Amino acid sequence: MIEIKMENPKELPDPYGPYTHIARLKNHHELIFVAGQLSVDKEGNIVGKNNFEQQCAQVYENIGTALRGIGADYSNIVQFTTYLASAEHIPLIYDWRKREFPNIFPAGDYPPNTLLVVERLVNEDFLIEVQTVAAL
Question: What is the rounded CA–CA span in Å between residue 17 and residue 37?
Fold first, then answer.
């Protein structure tokens, strides 16, 4: 029997729309589906308006917060899907990852990532959104 449980960790702001931050699927192993995280603080305020670096930092902090809320961490991540609101940010996300991923993933095992450039995100002030799949 497969068990699916939806969760919104209290350490994260309320979802930005009708979705849940985390879906947990349990069979022999548990898969964790973290909704696309945006650059918002715990109160839902946009962090880093017009600043791609600040938005990246907040997005990945939110991913870490979501994972810690269920007893996981970055080492449990098995896949990312990254959405950018502009192709001009592609070199910036590559630079940010090159600089920050060694700290986030010290073993050097970086999860697969799909990078998509979209017309815009849910709010035009958001420059990046990252969806995550993890396993326990």
Answer: 12
Query: What is the pTM assigned to this prediction?
Result: 0.87
> 23 exposed, middle or buried (CB, 10 Å; 0-12, 13-18, 19+)?
middle
Residue-wise pLDDT for 39-74, tens only, equals 999 999 999 999 999 999 999 999 999 999 999 999
Query: What CATH class does 3-135 carry?
Result: alpha beta
Q: State the pairing for strand pair 128-135/22-26.
A: unpaired
What residue segments make up the domains of the chain, in order of their start? 3-135
Whether the CB-CB separation of 20 and 9 falls below 8 Å is answered with: no
Instruction: Return the H-helix or E-strand segment holding 8.
Output: none
Q: What is d(CA 60, CA 47) in angstroms, rounded to the nearest whole number?
A: 12
